[in-house]
Specification:
By secondary structure, this protein is an all-alpha fold. It has 13 helices and no strands. Bound molecules: zinc ion. The site of zinc ion has 6 residues, from helix 4 and helix 6.
Length: 208
């Protein structure tokens, strides 16, 4: 997802839950995953290249780091780790075919509106048909240069990040579903985390 949409997702899903310092540190860590250094060789940051195992391991690691940092009263590290964790959780809907699979259930009829998307359908999360976009170099680099897009797309395979991504509204109606799924998933992940934290840790984390 493009940076502005990660920020929009964060504000929509968590804006009224965290204090201002916490919110800004979480957002900074989230969007920093898309810095130039985070873009290359880090499939696990963005759910790219079907690297599902590596990605789930990375998410588990960042989640555990959030909890252990809070146990040491290190809120800054906890907020950063949670921001990194959420970036990956949100990119899942933009870089995998989850939304396409969910929508395909309504083939032939009008699908429910985007706010009704289920972001954690167990059958789809475990589906053998679940894929994420492959990153084909060097074409994928050229794809990032907007004026070149129409010229390079015909040379990039259909199972690529370039063809599959739902990173911005330009990609069509599925983008709204990816946004709503990412918003809901972010809220679910906060609730899950909260249930694993002590009262004191949660208070510290939310910056009450
Ligand atoms: Zn990303």
């Amino acid at each position: 997802m493009l940076t502005q949409y990660h920020i929009e997702i964060m504000l929509n899903s968590l804006g009224d839950r965290f204090g201002p310092r916490a919110m800004s540190e979480i957002i900074m860590a989230n969007i920093n995953q898309d810095s130039l250094i985070g873009q290359f060789g880090h499939d696990e940051f963005h759910f790219d290249n079907n690297a599902f195992e590596k990605t789930y391991a990375y998410m588990d690691e960042q989640r555990a780091l959030t909890i252990s940092s809070l146990q040491r009263n290190d809120t800054s590290s906890a907020w950063s780790a949670f921001g990194r964790f959420l970036h990956t959780a949100q990119d899942f809907y933009a870089h995998s075919n989850y939304i396409t699979l969910w929508l395909s259930r309504f083939n032939g009829s009008t699908p429910p509106p985007p706010p009704e998307v289920d972001p954690v359908d167990e059958t789809l999360l475990n589906s053998p048909n679940l894929r994420s976009g492959k990153v084909y170099y060097p074409f994928e680099l050229l794809y990032f240069i907007r004026p070149l897009r129409p010229h390079v797309l015909p040379f990039i395979p259909r199972d690529s990040h370039a063809w599959m991504n739902l990173d911005s509204p330009e990609q069509g109606f599925k983008f709204d579903y990816a946004m709503q799924a990412a918003i809901k998933r972010t809220q679910i992940e906060l609730e899950k985390l909260a249930s694993d934290l002590s009262r004191d840790s949660l208070k510290l984390f939310l910056e009450w």
